[in-house]
Amino acid sequence: MKTNRASLPLFVVLIVGLAVTLAGQSEPQFLGTFSEPFTTFAVSGDLTHPGELDWYTFDIVSDASTIFILAESDNSVRVLLFDSDETYLDTASSGYLEAVLDAGTYLLRIDSGESSVLDYSLIVLNGIETETNDGLAESTDLGELSGSVQLFASMLPAGDADFYRFSVSESGLPGNANALLIRTGGPAGDSVVVLYQFNEEEDRYLPTVSDDDSGDSYWSQLLVRPEPGDRFALRIEETAFPLEGIDTYSLSILPVALVVDEEPNNTSTQATRLAPINEASTEWMVEGILDVSDAIDFFALTVQDPALVQIATEAQNGAGDYDTLLSLYTPEGDLLAESDDVGEGGWSRVSLSLEAGDYIVTIEMDDYETPPLPYRLTAVATSVRTVSENEPNDTDETSELVEWVLGDALLIEAAIGVAGDVDSFKFELAEATTVTFETGPRNGSTDSNDTTLAIYDEDLWQIGYNDDAIGSWSRVEQELPAGTYYIVIEGYFGDETFDYSLLITSTD
């Protein structure tokens, strides 16, 4: 079978606006007036047809104000700046636009250079960081949090450290927020973040928690649950070796609203019963938090009819990604399945064909995770058809034809029966859809074996591949047009033999 840096200036952002969705608006949308430092206006919109234009306007009351304009989209989006006489001033088609503007009214036009249909976000701000902030005494003061704070900066020269201070109002966090999500990020770099809290008795800031690589790539992420009136400081440094400095990084301090699960649910006898979210009792969802004194949560799940049950952990809205261990047990405590990391993330997922009855689900915090850990637990029951593999099916000519109907779940019980065995399955799609293929242990087994999974089109060109997605098991989710396809399963180590199952489902 065939296989086939622009430097960013330093500035601090205090987001004070609410997101607004715009569609096909003819009159310019007024963003606001820049009269104070650290002011940001943020909106989102969409261009619903090729050639559509969206217009915005803002005012400046002081002379020589530096304004930063950022327009972002998954597609090609650009922003054009005009003065009040509609005289063109500048354009940004990627990244950001920086302009020094006098007092007056200005216009922004959002369009697509490729006449694309797209969603976009627009941020207009005037915050600029002041150096130096190399120690606690020189910390950049972000003030009392009244919204989300975003900072773009650099760590230059190599070995530089940046410090920032902020406080929580005596009335608590804004809105219904009960936690702060602190993140670093950027095009490239490796950071460590240390959070200090002011200690009234000692009259100084003391370090409380730190993080190195919990964020995207080698960036950092902290989640804290402050009390009203708390005062904090942050230290950010580069941790890569050798130290080279970081041209550009971002720091975000985001108030978030976490959902807390009902306690106590720390043993199987205390398990919280999952309530179905639909009348057919085939979908369940609950949100919760793991913490220092609450490292495991138990939930009771009742399956009404024999079904394929897919259970997963994922992020609460806006609360960040974390690392969980998910397990499924019988009421007697027999382990049926468990999952640690799925794909590139730390979330967990198990798929198992279950008989009607009661089951126990547990969620645990990874040993290296920093609490608290917010999560969302979902479970979906789908009717499943189980068939057994027929050998020989080692080539495309002998590939086993499987009958799979869109919307059904098909579970194939198979085996790498001899060293070097190759299993090939052929199926036909009557219409375009997104299909998920995944290997896993046979029902009743918790074995972990190492497979590779490849998808080929009718001409035997490889169009999808995965090695380790669910532990050592494999998973490919891919949008496929109507046609004929081949699924090829092999053992990663050619000298091993083992039983496995292949699950085929659709998300459409």
Describe the 3D structure.
This protein is mostly beta strands and 508 residues long. It has 4 domains: 11-125, Jelly Rolls; 140-256, Jelly Rolls (Sandwich); 268-382, Jelly Rolls, CATH 2.60.120; 385-506, Jelly Rolls (Sandwich). Helix content is 0%, strand content 52%. It has strands at 11-15, 21-23, 29-34, 40-47, 54-60, 65-72, 78-83, 88-92, 96-101, 104-111, 118-125, 140-144, 148-155, 161-167, 179-185, 191-199, 204-211, 221-224, 231-238, 246-256, 272-273, 283-290, 296-303, 307-314, 324-329, 335-339, 349-354, 357-365, 373-382, 384-388, 400-401, 409-416, 422-429, 433-440, 451-456, 462-466, 475-480, 483-491, 498-506. A hairpin with a 4-residue loop joins β16 (191-199) and β17. It is globular and about 80 Å long. The chain starts with 10 loop residues before the first strand and ends with a strand.
* Total number of beta strands: 39
Briefly note the structural class of the backbone: mainly beta
Distance between the termini: 29 Å
Q: What is the overall pLDDT average?
A: 88
The figure for the number of domains is 4
CATH architecture of the largest domain: Sandwich
Q: What top-tier CATH class of the largest domain fits best?
A: Mainly Beta
Largest sheet: 5 strands, antiparallel
**Which strand order spans the largest sheet, edge to edge or round the barrel?**
1-13-20-15-18
Percent range for helical residues?
under 10%
Which of globular, elongated, flat, extended, rod-shaped describes the shape?
Answer: globular
Looking at the structure, the CATH topology of the largest domain is Jelly Rolls
Count of helix runs:
0
